[in-house]
Amino acid sequence: MNDDDDWTDAWRFAAEHHHGQTLPGSELSYLTHLGSVVLELLAAHVVEPVPDIELAVPCAILHDCIEDQGVTHAELASRFGVRVADGVAALSKHPALPKAEAMTDSLSRIQAQPKAVWCVKLADRISNLIPPPAHWDAAKRRAYREEARLILNRLGAAHSGLAARLRTRIEGYDA
Ligand code: NI
Question: Separation of 78 CA from ligand 1 center, angstroms?
Fold first, then answer.
């Protein structure tokens, strides 16, 4: 199978598994978020190659399907290969851990993955630092911005363009 088919198959898989899921505080399909993460990666890649883009793109498309939809590592490994499954698993917060700890635990597991996976997390947070849902209070917005700073500090070395874009989003975030 060539890479184009891999990416298209991953997108179809994500569309099936996230069907009915919407963005927080919105009626837009969750695919809006997944597409935006992929576009952040590809836009960055045009300027400065994202290391192993063939790994980064399917990981971006599938990055929330374990955490949000209960897809298993084994299923991802059989469909898309063990490297993609390992990347998506690292990008998934452990449900049993308290919230703050779950993020640092995930970041440590991402840092044990190829730089492509670091880039997905940077692109994910860039995509998420848009005006927050109306129901978020100031404390939640500030915590989200602090978490973004942690992501930038831990993973920013993977790609200067993505790091710069995340830094700009953090500075402009209404918290
Ligand atoms: Ni995401």
Answer: 22
